[in-house]
Write a structure and sequence with these properties.
- The longest helix has 14 residues.
- It is built from nine helices and 21 strands.
- By secondary structure, it is α+β, with helices and mostly antiparallel strands.
- Strands 12-13-14-11-3-15 form a six-stranded mixed sheet, with helices on both faces. It has a six-stranded antiparallel barrel with strand order 16-19-18-17-20-21.
- Strand 1 and strand 2 form a beta hairpin.
- The protein has three domains: about 140 residues, Probable tRNA modification gtpase trme, domain 1 (Gyrase A, domain 2), CATH 3.30.1360.120; about 80 residues, Alpha-Beta Plaits, CATH 3.30.70.1400; about 80 residues, Aminomethyltransferase beta-barrel domains (Elongation Factor Tu (Ef-tu), domain 3).
Length: about 400
């Protein structure tokens, strides 16, 4: 007997719930904060950069409110560092990215793209400049360590490329500054947005930066001795408890509200910067050569056939973020896909990031989104959905 589609979907959903059990093994690395996160209530993990990352500390909506009202501490040791040092480190780093680094100072951070020969994006990391020829590439999920080591083999540049013992935590939210003052004193507030500082906390060696993946005021604390992970976590939580600090995980709700990209979801190896409106991160007119320069010049000249947009999706609140790409249709034709979707309890809307054909990308256009349980209408809107001028994060 052939099952009805509704029964079949219910069976699939039950099977997916059963698959949520996570089996730990030695082939996937644990972060220096793993035991602490379990102690503090981590209920589920996924894998990112060949490491376990906590994805669940309870209600994701409560995690969102904890973030936007107070502060959360997130284990993001999965943001592995690719360290580039040596006499030619700056020249080599500039070869990897289409963003002009000529005015990047020591002690500064920049959001960059790493592109391949086709001008497509291999990663969208944060770059930290610790010295004249000393860089960390703080990675999204991909094997840029291997890419950089491979590129260096015949580059002619004198560089050393390795993964150091560095594991970041994210302290994010409006009260994160108060927690930082409790930990490091008043002077830490002088640290400007997208700058870094080398500090110690009771002998624990750290690099602290005013960065984060939350669209909120926040800091990242880069631990430089993995054996001290448990101690660092407990010190931060103890200092933050009077300010309402909670353990948490990166919030899909807040990052989609802020229009922040997730690699492998909103951007991948087949996406170029111009499709994402990231022209500001590309300077193909630089005299220096970088990987993908010819391709990006060509794309800029010819234009793109698709664009990233925001969507306001009608219908009942989504119960959870999408786990598959949803087709977008216009007049019966597939014109794109939803890459990240979520219900925002603050905006009281289903919001999404999507990539669509340029012919339908204008603000105000109405399209159809094919979800698991049916088709709903959606309107193309501007992003970010909240705090479009980024006043909160840069305060």
């Amino acid at each position: 007997m052939i099952l009805g589609i509704g029964v079949l979907l219910e069976q699939i959903e039950k099977n997916m719930i059963q698959l949520e059990k996570f089996v730990f093994g030695t082939q996937i690395r644990k972060s220096p904060y793993f035991d602490a996160t379990v102690r503090w209530g981590a209920k589920a993990f996924s894998v990112y950069n060949h490491m376990y990352i906590p994805r669940d500390f309870g209600d994701p909506v409560q995690n969102f409110w904890n973030l936007v009202n107070d502060a959360i501490l997130c284990d993001v040791a999965v943001e592995r560092q690719v360290e580039i040092t040596g006499p030619d480190a700056f020249k080599f780093m500039q070869m990897l990215t289409p963003r002009d680094l000529s005015k990047m100072s020591v002690g500064q951070c920049k959001y960059i793209l790493i592109t391949n020969a086709d001008g497509c994006i291999l990663n969208d990391p944060i770059l930290l400049r610790l010295g004249e020829n000393h860089f960390w590439i703080s990675l999204a999920d991909s094997d840029i360590l291997l890419w950089a080591q491979g590129v260096s083999v015949h580059s002619g540049f004198n560089v050393t490329i390795r993964e150091p013992d560095v594991s970041p935590l994210q302290l994010q939210g409006p009260k994160s500054g108060e927690v930082m003052k409790a930990l490091f004193g008043e002077s830490i507030i002088d640290l400007h947005y997208y700058w870094l500082r080398e500090v110690e906390l009771d002998g624990i060696p750290l690099i602290v930066s005013r960065t984060g993946w939350s669209s909120e005021l926040g800091y990242e604390l880069y631990l430089q001795d993995g054996s001290l992970g448990d101690e660092l976590w407990e010190k931060i939580m103890a200092a933050g408890t009077p300010f309402g600090l909670k353990p948490g995980h990166t919030s899909s709700i807040r990052r989609i509200e802020g229009g922040m990209l997730s690699y492998h979801a909103d951007v991948d190896i087949n996406t170029n910067p111009y499709e994402l409106g990231l022209d500001r991160l590309v300077n193909p007119d630089m005299e220096v050569e970088f990987i993908g320069k010819a391709a990006l010049l060509r794309i800029r000249k010819n234009g793109v056939s698709r664009k990233q947009v925001g969507l306001r999706i009608e219908g009942a609140p989504l119960k959870e973020p999408n786990t598959t790409f949803w087709d977008i249709n216009k007049n019966g034709n597939i014109v794109g896909k939803v890459t990240s979707a979520v219900y925002s309890p603050r905006l009281k809307r289903n919001i999404a990031l999507a990539i669509v054909s340029t012919e339908v990308a204008d603000i105000g256009n109405v399209v159809d989104v094919s979800m698991r349980h049916g088709t709903v209408q959606a309107s193309i809107v501007e992003t970010p959905f909240f705090d479009p001028k980024k006043k909160i994060v840069a305060a």
